[in-house]
């Protein structure tokens, strides 16, 4: 029995592509909830993971595309990233200690100066750099943005991650949990499952599909035999793209489904039955409704 009050809140995790956000989330959340990839900007979803630390529920909100947005979708992500940061209870900036503060990090640091919530600087990949340069880096970043806490971690090895988790837990506002405990693992998994499928489509078809297809996990049904039945819809912009995704006699979508199923099963740690549907939704990349569904704001102006 514990009288400790429950806490729940949002943490915006900001970091350049490859800074190690996914690796850190995997450590904090304790299971594979985000795709670790050398490819940049693999991330599309907003809630990336939910960690439980004692009586605190820490919901990590991802901030993809905050660095050098190119396409309209990416620009929407930036707006949403800063919007996410504004809504979050705590803002964390993850910096690859080996890369240091480059022009992009510099711009982020400047912007962070205006953020009112508690700010945490996390220097990652400390296994790759000398201690002296870490201290200099921490000092330089703090001079620009004035962080409330600074952590030096190796997300890969897990060094420093527990301390970070404890501090984050203490910064969460008191209140009821926002996700029922039994859904904590599933909520990000649905998102992850969609990302995995999207990545498999990208792996096979990035030359033929001018824009990423968009994947939504429509249903997630835990079955009595311990397996899970997942239905996903792949949205493409045109009928011609639908044909490409399906492939001759459905062979492309079958291969995508098989590859995705293996990886989703690994992440969910149970057998998976995956059903994919491909639908045409014209101009989805320019459709304000789609942005809203993804929790994004439609970017104004032409790009
Ligand atoms: N040596 C070392 N490598 C790390 C560490 N953390 C992450 N990496 C590596 O850095 C690379 C990028 O890590 P990710 O976690 O995919 O980075 P990310 O910020 O999520 O990247 P995006 O999803 O592309 O934005 C991977 O190869 C990781 O294994 C660390 O603490 N030490």
From TrEMBL:
Compartments where located: Cytoplasm; Cell membrane
Membrane topology, as annotated: Peripheral membrane protein
InterPro entries, A to Z: G_ERA_dom (IPR030388), GTP-bd (IPR006073), GTPase_Era-like (IPR005662), KH_dom-like_a/b (IPR015946), KH_dom_type_2 (IPR004044), KH_sf_prok-type (IPR009019), P-loop_NTPase (IPR027417), Small_GTP-bd (IPR005225)
G5 as annotated region, ranges: 153-155
GO molecular function, one term: GTPase activity
Keywords assigned: Cell inner membrane, Cell membrane, Cytoplasm, GTP-binding, Membrane, Nucleotide-binding, Ribosome biogenesis, RNA-binding, rRNA-binding
G3 as annotated region, ranges: 62-65
Residue ranges constituting the Era-type G domain according to the UniProt record: 7-174
Residues noted as binding GTP in the record, renumbered to the chain: 15-22, 62-66, 124-127
Residues covered by region (G4): 124-127
Region named G1: 15-22
Every KH type-2 domain range: 205-282
Region (G2): 41-45
Principal location listed in the UniProt entry: cytoplasm
Purpose of the protein: An essential GTPase that binds both GDP and GTP, with rapid nucleotide exchange. Plays a role in 16S rRNA processing and 30S ribosomal subunit biogenesis and possibly also in cell cycle regulation and energy metabolism.
Family affiliation: Belongs to the TRAFAC class TrmE-Era-EngA-EngB-Septin-like GTPase superfamily. Era GTPase family.
HAMAP family listed in its UniProt record: GTPase_Era
Quaternary structure, from the entry: Monomer.
Annotated protein name in UniProt: GTPase Era
